[in-house]
Amino acid sequence: MYCVRNVKEDLYWVGADDRRLTLFENIHPIPNGVSYNAYLLMDEKTVLFDAVDWSAGRQFFENVEHVLQGRALDYLVIHHAEPDHAATVEEVLLRWPDVTVLASAAALRFLKQFGVSLEGRSVEEITDGAEKSFGRHQVTFLSAPMVHWPEVMVTYDRTDGVLFSADAFGTFGALNGKLFNDEVDFDHCWLRDARRYYTNIVGKFGPQVQALLAKAKKADIRMICPLHGPVWRTDLGYFLEKYDLWSRYEPESRGVMIAYASMYGNTESAANVLAAALADRGVKDVVLYDVSRTHVSDLIAETFRVSHIVLASVTYNLGIYPMMHNCLSDMKALNVQKRTFAILENGTWACRAGALMKAEVESLKDAVVLEPKVTITSSLNEAKRAELEALADALCADLKK
User: Fold this and answer.
1) Residue 116 CA: distances (Å) to CA of 19, 111, 185, 306, 390
2) Are 297 and 196 in contact (CB under 8 A)?
3) pLDDT, tens only, 38-79
4) CA nearest neighbour of 327 among 355, 368, 361, 350
5) Residue 175 to residues 168, 275, 308, 315, 326: CA-CA distances in angstroms?
6) Parallel, antiparallel or unpaired: strands 153-157 and 23-24
7) Where are the alpha helices (DSSP H) in 69-139?
8) pTM summary value
């Protein structure tokens, strides 16, 4: 049975939720599911903006056929050729063989690489700034390379001020019937997943997101229709500001994340003491994470959120504890920068984690390593507790800058 939502008078959401998928891109946990958004414009010409993943194919086609009510499908706009949006493109072509595909040159190439045959099909290669009329609706296509694949483009509907934003402004989470941002408590229920989505999926490409935001500022955008998550029809400035901060790698909060790697609880104990010392000094935004129990996507999201990060790791095989090393590798891969770090190391012999973590951190752009480094030998004692208190003082002083 079809399940559609009216976005505007002649625009419909025809996507679907997926609550069965456990890992997005087979990496990132999505306990709240994910939506695959597609939109159908019913103008003089009918226009389908994107397809969906195979997992949502049945619902998607029921939705499209219901809205079309027997009309032909004139255009299929492909903003992004990743399979979670383009896996059902070939089925669209089979059901509506006369449809014209609108996509960037790179997207057309990627579709062929994924086995989608466009031979004998009507295809228009779209370039940056190209314009098209679908009847009442006049649109401009804008390239958005590396947000987050090189073929990405977005569509700006100049008539109604709607931006079809591809993967930009998306978030993890099934919609559960609520399509619009003002139908949900976004801050409480969605922001954490939105941040985790951005930082892990798009976060590496901050300059490219800034380029897209610069284009967006020139347009009268009144609604944002992303490929995942809620449609934004109110308070657009709120989410645009988040994207601006994230893509400039500026923290949302002057706060501290303590990420610790502990084998037998001794490094964890030191992390707890430090967190309590910070709270004693009035620091309210202090979060504590066990890197062995917290998925790295959550650690990366918090790294983007806060200004200060304490890395507390036991030495393991004369190196950094593997889960901590994985976190540091992801920080580098996702272009984390402009953060202040502090180092807490532990080891019973040949304690080397601190020096190695410092070297990893110093490879990040505009990263600052705060002194003093604290070294624990096996377990915390009163002398080392005093050093943790000194580190808490240093963190507090730096947070006030």
Assistant:
1) 27, 5, 39, 43, 61
2) yes
3) 999 999 999 999 999 999 999 999 999 999 999 999 999 999
4) 361
5) 17, 36, 33, 43, 31
6) unpaired
7) 83-86, 89-95, 105-113
8) 0.95
Q: How far apart are CA 157 and CA 134, in angstroms?
A: 10
Let me know: does 155 contact 77? Beta carbons within 8 Å: yes
Convert the pLDDT of each residue in 161-201 to its tens digit: 999 999 999 999 999 999 999 999 999 999 999 999 999 99
For the chain, report the end-to-end CA distance as a whole number of angstroms: 58
DSSP per position, 251-272:
-SEEEEEEEEE-SSSHHHHHHH
Quote the distance between the C-alpha of residue 157 and its chain's center: 24
pLDDT digits (tens, 9 = 90+) for 317-343: 999 999 999 999 999 999 999 999 999
Residues with Cβ within 8 Å of residue 292, at least 6 apart in sequence:
261, 262, 323
Task: Write phi, then psi, for 94 (nearest 5 degrees).
Answer: -70, -40
Q: State the Cα–Cα distance between residues 227 and 39, nearest whole angstrom.
A: 9
Residues forming beta bridges with residue 232, ordered by sequence position: 224
User: Do residues 159 and 138 make contact, with C-beta atoms less than 8 angstroms apart?
Assistant: yes
Contacts for 334 with CB less than 8 Å, ≥ 6 apart: 199, 200, 203, 204, 300
List phi, psi (to 5°) of 156: -110, 115
353 three-class SS: helix
Name residue 45's amino acid.
K
105/126 Cα distance (integer angstroms): 7
269: closest CA among 344, 370, 352, 349?
344
Beta bridge partners of 16: 36
Asked if the peptide bond before residue 207 counts as cis, ω within 30 degrees of 0, the response is no
Q: How many residues does the chain have?
A: 401
Residue listed under structure tokens 């202040």:
340
Alpha carbons 139 and 134: distance in angstroms, whole number: 8
Q: What b-and-e string marks burial along 155-181, b requiring 16 or more CB atoms within 10 Å of the CB?
A: bbbebbebbbbbbbbbbbbbbeeebbb
Measuring CA to CA, which residue among 100, 237, 95, 240 is closest to residue 165? 240
The conformation of residue 137, written as its DSSP 8-state character, comes to -
